[in-house]
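Hey everyone, long-time lurker, first post.

I ran two proteins through the pipeline my lab uses and got sequence/structure pairs for each. Pasting them in order. The first:
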Amino acid sequence: MKKVLISGSILTILTLALLATPAKAEEGREGRDDNRPRPMQNVMQMRRDNASGTPARMEDKMRKGTSSMGTANVDVTCMKNAIDKREAGLASNWTAFNTSLTSAINARGTALKAAFDKPAGTERKTALQTARKDFTNTVKTARKTFATADKATRTTFRTEAKACGANSSDVAAAESPEDGAMLK
């Protein structure tokens, strides 16, 4: 009987505590709205203050030609040539990588066939392991070579793009996704 009374009183206390909690949370939300504006309200206020709808800081940057939207003095022909060089370099990197993988697969096939020409036992097992290890090492080397060539191609592009007058946001916008990330 005592256990039932104790558990009943605990249940009553927990219920009252839960019922009281949402009221406090509602009071806190109401107080926040009354005391300080939300970030979206700040943006709307800035737009109302500024007739063009663009924040004043952005307008200043646009007048100076330093907007993060792009620079006005980029040599377009130079940028197009830099992009063409980069794309040709990336295509060349992928072609070399694919050629390396194709060679590795063909070499592995030949080595595996030769392994099965050997009599069963440790000699065959060793030949199979060697074929797999050689393939794995060739693929690792091809990946490293690709990553190095990819990085060099992109570094060259960034340098050429900056020489064309592009700022960092222009260069970032013209960048293609990291191809090497697909190999990891």
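...and the second, right after it:
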Amino acid sequence: MGIVNYSWDLDGDLTFETYGKVVNWTYLNPGSYTIKLNVTDAAGLYGEDTFAIQVLDATPPVISNISNGTASNNSVSISWDSNELSNSTVRYGKYANISNMSSQSDSTFVLNHTIVLFNLTNDTKYYYMVNSSDPFGNSNNSTIYNFTTTNNTDNDSPIISNAFLDKNTSLNIGNVITVTVNVSDNIGVTRVTADDNNLTRQNATHWKGTVTADATKSVTIYAYDAAGNNNITKLTYTLYIAPYKPPSTGGGGGGGGGTSGEEFENILCSEVDRQFVGVDQEVSYSFEFDCNYVKYINLTGIASSGKIAAKVETLNHTSSLVDIPAPDIVFKNLNVWAGNMGWFSENNVKNPTIMFMVDRTWVTNNDIKLNTITFYSYNDGTANWEKMSTQKISEDSGSYYFKASLPIRGTLGPMAISGGSSSASVHFSPTIKPTITPQSTPEIVPGATPVTWTGIWKEEVPGFQVLMALFVLIVLYVTGRRWN
């Protein structure tokens, strides 16, 4: 059965830009692009393949605004701009001969470039040129400039200003924190660290990097200049501490995230997020653990419920709270909870959804058909697994991402992510000429099935033949009398 449709996603935005067996496309910007081809046959079976291309840039960066700051006895700052992201190199020496020059470089791709030269000789004229190369290897050099060092010793420390963390309250140990620092100096800043991690220069004064939250609840920032002068500042954050809760005496509302009843040995990992739920408030629970394949639970509040916990338990096997496994080939078994028993009801929430991810390797190794991947919820009332409305929303090199609805029936409980094995496959040659292997269709062969015709001599009618014989004799007798 032949292929009837070729659909092409040419820029990785999950939408098809063009259709046809052979297509032409012009890319306006250089870079790496992932191309996806989807083919469909007349029976509606489909298959997909992806491959990466590199659109090259052949134009070198344009360098402008080259300047040097005031030199000290042994250091100076060189700055310039480029019209595209590119790295930074300064070649310098006591003679205007490029082959005899030393160099100082920064591999970070930026638009505003700064290189601080140090360990220079005092009261000496230096020649320099700047160079920037873009990620595709296109390189451009400036003309040669010069500066002269002085006899003045730099004793001024860098000035740290506007240092902040992207998040600083209710963190968990292990959370990644982004640190942003602005640092200035009379000559030039050579290095900035946060908890001994080197930050990356974004321009002449802006530095950025990450640290990991720990029990110290603080980030120590150091800034250094070429003369060895330094400055220090410290930022703090708070860790999340679960409030004390007396044993529950029943009722609905807050809570969640306590003991679920699952067998301890079956829990691979457990993660809790707490959010305030108010009237008509869009609420998003976020999960970060690598072992947790649920990334978000989103809902809209109906009532003012206060701070409500949502908890995801990733399990080793089928939940011990159910008697039957989920359908198809299971990727992950889960328990999902939100609030106390009975809270997850139509009185408190609406439009709940869950976003989860599935490993590409599991899909490939188990020959899973993408459109069969489904989120299941176990219904205690019917003692059955219920299929939730599930749709694929995105993908990357390692995972597929899906969104599914969640049932509103007072509580959540055991869940599962599963999929069915593909019943048809698409094979792609290196030239992207797919061949569909159709499902086999049963062949109907005429057989020797008897067909019964019911006639007047059918034996099943008792005495019929005798009556007919008497009728024939009567007719002959009457005909004979007439002749006589």
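Reply from user beta_strand_b:
Welcome! Quick read of the second one: The radius of gyration is 38 Å. Residues 106 and 449 are 86 Å apart (CA to CA).
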